[in-house]
Structures are given as C-alpha cells and as structure tokens.
C-alpha cells in the first residue's frame, strides 16, 4: 500500500478549492483533491444553462482572501464565477493537486490503521483525513413522471444542458419553476415557438437589483485601499439583516409579501395569469427568487403557464391530470437536486462498519454540520444545517475551513491519530437545531428542498452567519474522543 496522504478532499468546487488553499497556506503539503469531472468548478461548471447567474452579489460571493475588483456586474454570471474559481486554483497551486476523472465510489475507516481507505474509479488510495466537499446541489433530481422514457423528443435536466439542442421555433416544455427555471425561461422564451411552463408551486420572485459595474467604479475598487472591503461589508450587513425575517421575526416577511403582490400586479396585468402566480404558502418558506424578466416573460403571447399536475409523458406531449395534451419537441427538467442526500451515492463506512446512509436514515445530522459520530477524521463542507436563505454560502464555507484546520492543528499538537465527535455532542447540537428551526419561516407549511421526505428541515442554519462563525471559531476538545496509537 502506498504511503497514505495527509488529506484527501472530495470535490473541486468552492468548498474543495478553498479547503485546499487553506491547507496549503497552513503548511499541509500532501493534499489530494479528487474530482469526478474533467475540470474544476462544481455547480458553476455543471450549470451552464442560458441565463445562469448567482443571486448573491459578486463582492460577497467570493473568497475573503482573494478579492476581485473587476467583476462586470453586481450579480455575477456563471462564466465569470467559473473563471474566478479557475483563477484561484491556478494562483494557489490547487490544479497540481487535483486528480480529474476520479469519482469516489466509497470510503471506509480502517480503525486499526487509523486511515480512510477510499475507493475510486481510478483505484484505491488512503488518507489520514477525509474532507467531503460535495455540496448540497450536485445531484440532479429527475421527477418520477410516468412515461418519461417514452418521450421521443429532446429532453435534459437544467444542470446537464444540451447546448446542441436548437430551440428556435420549437415547442418547449419547462417542468419546474425554481431558481434555475426563473433564469432559463426568459432566455428561451425569446426563441422558442411555443413555451409551456409547468408549475407545481408558484415561487416568490422579487426584483433583482442588478446592473453592470461602471469603469470608474472598478478603477476605484482597484486603486483605493479599503473600498472593496467596505463594499463587501455593506453588502454583508444588508443581507445578514434579512435573517430577522427568516428566523427571529417571521411576521416581518408579511411586509415584503405585500410589496411582492404590488409588484406582481404591476408586472402581470392579466388577472387570470396573476392568480396562478400567487404562492399559496408564506413568503420565505421556500427559496425566494430574484429576477426582473421572469414575470414579463410569462406574459409573452408564446408562453403558457400550466398549473394542472402532470399525469404522464407521451411520445410527443406532456399530459396533465385534466387529460389535456401539451405538445412538445423539447422537455427541460428544471426540477432541482437531491439536496438532502448529501454524500449519496457514495457508501461511507465508519468505525465498526457503521454505514453513513443508515446513520442518516431519519435525516442527515452532523455536529456544526461538519463532523459525524462514528466517522473519525471525516469532515463535511456545506453539510447539514449550513445552507442559508439570506447570505453567502462562501462565508459559511470559510468558517468551516477554519474549523477543520483547527481540528487538524489540535491533532498535530497532541500527536493524535484520529478524533471523533462524541455522540452526546452531536445529539445536543441536533436538538438545538430542531428547537431553533421550530417557528422559523421554513416550517411554515410548505414542501421544499430544505426538508426530508418526512418533513424534517436538515439543510438550513437557523441563525445569523456571524453566530455560526463564532460557533466554529475553534473546536472544543470536550466535543471529541481522541485516539493515539500506543
């Protein structure tokens, strides 16, 4: 067996690249990043659909240690975010550490050796520490619609966009009205002959305060020290204040909801169409979307919004529960991701042969969203309870990076082979999360990708991001079992 690596990271998106950079800067040289695709980027590599962009401003949706002053827009489009990640990977030497085309199929902890044995499509390797940076939005979810395979036209998921498909003049069906759909629909409505939007649940879509950065603004950000930091701090503070409505005082969302209804009335004059676009759940229960062109696109004469449930697909149509057939040449599944499965389909086995999928059968749980009892030296990035509805996930990832480094530094100082979070520490954290989630807007009576099938919210952090940063400032030794080989 080859010499084990110090750290193996699964995934080369924001989480994995940032972790590799922080490890390098902390002096860890033997770090390997395993990436199943042929390039880096994670979700920003996979989602190349028309109109793909971020809904967090660029100055905040970037690493704190690698500022960029020449973003073209306030809300960055997908190609720019991917280019930024590639720049970071090149600048900090991450690319040399990535093994592309290497998919992890499973990993098991060898307690006697104190190592993770990692099975990949390129063979087995071992590591003292395993970091899973797979994210929550990496496995496209296709709906179990009867006859889906019978459809004879072109069909694909939004995260696997078929750029060879010519939509000009075609009859296009978009299934889903989530975050991807509200960006896709305005783009393809301009070229499709007929566009049918199948809506199961109406989203809240509010104005997007986007605009290009002027040349003088970019020059100022680059030339004057502190201006970029000020812009970042201002944006952070504005977005952080939104947590009050999500978590502390859900009734505040009613004010925003009233404004939404006023704007919807102004953008959609047809009362019948407008009625179909009013959500039937409290604002914030599902992800709030931002767009300036989604509602205008739905009012185009070549666009139809269908709210009847889909019964099945035929060779050339989408059939709804009322028996109506909606002819289609192309079907786009904008149906989101398997967000609550986290590390699936990998099989992760911990001490005593404990299977992570079995441990998480009632819903994923991890102490601080990072460590799991029974799985020593395994660290999750963007794990359970770390998603946000109001701020930048990059801020959360950087908090997790620091926590992982703190754990590794403590192990190094004490000469430990591995550490494992105590069952009682993880259980206490999980109880605290569920107690704090009770009464939040996410539990206000809707289904969403934040929840498991049994209705348990496992994805979101029920608090301010600065509170999470404080909680992860340094690992508490009392939370862990420690092991040193005699």
TrEMBL record:
InterPro entries xref list: FAD-bind_Monooxygenase_sf (IPR051209), FAD/NAD-bd_sf (IPR036188)
SUPFAM superfamilies: FAD/NAD(P)-binding domain (SSF51905)
A Pfam family reported for this protein in Swiss-Prot or TrEMBL: Pyr_redox_3
Transmembrane feature ranges: none
Entry protein name: NAD(P)/FAD-dependent oxidoreductase
Species lineage: Bacteria, Bacillati, Actinomycetota, Actinomycetes, Streptosporangiales
């Amino acid at each position: 067996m080859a010499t084990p690596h110090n750290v193996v990271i699964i995934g080369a998106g924001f989480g994995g690249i940032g972790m590799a950079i922080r490890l390098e800067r902390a002096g860890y040289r033997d770090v390997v990043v395993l990436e199943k695709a042929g390039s880096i980027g994670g979700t920003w590599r996979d989602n190349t659909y028309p109109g793909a962009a971020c809904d967090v401003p660029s100055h905040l949706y970037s690493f704190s240690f690698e500022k960029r002053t020449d973003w073209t827009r306030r809300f960055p489009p997908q190609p720019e975010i991917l280019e930024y990640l590639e720049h970071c990977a090149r600048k900090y030497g991450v690319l040399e550490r990535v093994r592309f085309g290497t998919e992890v199929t499973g990993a098991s902890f060898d307690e006697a050796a104190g190592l993770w044995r990692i099975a990949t499509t390129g063979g087995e390797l071992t590591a003292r520490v395993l970091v899973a940076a797979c994210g929550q939005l990496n496995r496209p979810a296709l709906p179990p619609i009867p006859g889906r395979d019978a459809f004879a036209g072109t069909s694909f998921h939004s995260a696997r966009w078929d750029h060879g498909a010519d939509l000009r003049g075609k009859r296009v069906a978009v299934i889903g009205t989530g975050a991807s759909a509200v960006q896709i629909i305005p783009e393809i409505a301009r070229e499709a002959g007929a566009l049918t939007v199948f809506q199961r649940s109406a989203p809240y879509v509010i104005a997007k305060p986007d605009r290009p950065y002027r040349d003088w603004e970019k020059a100022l950000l680059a030339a004057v020290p502190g201006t970029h930091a000020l812009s970042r701090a201002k944006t952070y503070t504005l977005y952080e204040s939104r947590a009050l409505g999500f978590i502390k005082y859900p009734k505040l969302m009613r004010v925003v909801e009233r404004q939404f209804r006023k704007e919807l009335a102004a953008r959609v004059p047809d009362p019948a169409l407008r009625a179909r676009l009013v959500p039937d759940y409290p604002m914030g229960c599902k992800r709030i979307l931002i767009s300036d062109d989604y509602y205008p696109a739905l009012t185009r004469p070549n666009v139809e919004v269908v709210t009847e449930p889909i019964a099945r697909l035929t060779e050339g149509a989408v059939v709804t529960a009322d028996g109506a057939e909606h002819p289609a040449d192309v079907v786009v599944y904008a149906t989101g991701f398997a967000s609550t499965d986290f590390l699936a389909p990998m099989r992760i086995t911990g001490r005593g042969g404990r299977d992570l999928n079995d441990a998480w059968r009632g819903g994923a749980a991890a102490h601080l969203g990072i460590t799991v009892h029974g799985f020593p030296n395994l660290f999750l990035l963007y794990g359970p309870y770390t998603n946000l509805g109001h701020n930048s996930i990059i801020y959360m990832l950087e908090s997790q990076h620091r926590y992982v480094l703190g754990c590794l530094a403590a192990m190094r100082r004490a000469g430990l082979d591995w550490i494992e979070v105590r069952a009682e520490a993880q259980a206490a954290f999980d109880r605290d999360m569920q107690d704090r989630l009770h009464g939040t807007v996410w539990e206000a009576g809707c289904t969403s990708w934040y929840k498991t099938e049994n209705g348990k919210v496992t994805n979101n952090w029920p608090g301010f991001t600065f509170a999470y940063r404080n909680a992860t400032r340094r690992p508490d030794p009392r939370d862990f079992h420690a092991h040193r080989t005699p």
